[in-house]
Amino acid sequence: MLQVLVVEDDLGDVALVENAFAEHSLPSTLHHVADGVDALAFLRREAPFDDAPRPDLILLDLNMPRVDGREVLSQIKADDDLKAIPAIVFTTSAAAGDVLASYAAHANAYVTKPIDLDDFDRIVAEIRHFYGHVALLPRRT
After folding, report:
1. Does the chain have fewer CB atoms within 10 Å around its N or its C terminus?
2. Is 2-132 a domain of CATH 3.90.1300.10?
3. Where on the chain is 4-aspartylphosphate found, per UniProt (predicted)?
4. pLDDT tens-digit profile of 17-63?
């Protein structure tokens, strides 16, 4: 069962990701938090996420309230306990500076969210397929 943490403040995009995962045969559980503060608490299993599972994959938006995705990515990749979790920046920004900064902060991939719903579903399906069937992921502890 693939455990996915979706860090996204746009509930419409969360619903699209959920639909894309639900339409495919790979068993997965999606967990959602709406900002970076909750993402870090979830990953560190701090209240109110004391029983949170360790995700196999993180889909991370950049532009969020409180703590943005850039800071979340930096903290994940600086943490010895979390840095092995693949973190995919999944955002509307196609700015070269955002792409460069994300890879410099050790993002595992940078994917721009498509505007077209069919393309959105296809892209999420490709991410799900790659991390669910092709890539070998670290074992959860």
Report:
1. C
2. no
3. 61
4. 988 888 766 788 899 999 999 999 999 999 999 999 999 999 999 98
